[in-house]
Amino acid sequence: MKEHVMKEAKTSNIIQQLERMGQDASLQATAEFEQIVNDSTLDNELKQSLLNKDVISLEKQLDVCPDIVCVLVAHEEDEDDSIDVESSPLSIVA
């Protein structure tokens, strides 16, 4: 349970830092970016990942699952439907 709470706090902190960086154009410059990251309360691993712009490392540390799975299923035809399968509407199931 304690690990889960720590993970949520870690995620919240990084989101707040990323939000701040996105809102302040001056943080786009390398020196300002490095300063804000180094001054943050983030742990050293997150800081290094941000400074190195290592997206894969950030995803692993924050347990981000960017995969989206979607399935397209052809709409079922009624007996009186004579629509060609290729032109029949599709249902999206996620």
Automatic annotation (TrEMBL):
By what name is this protein known? Uncharacterized protein
Q: Which organism is it from?
A: Shewanella psychrophila
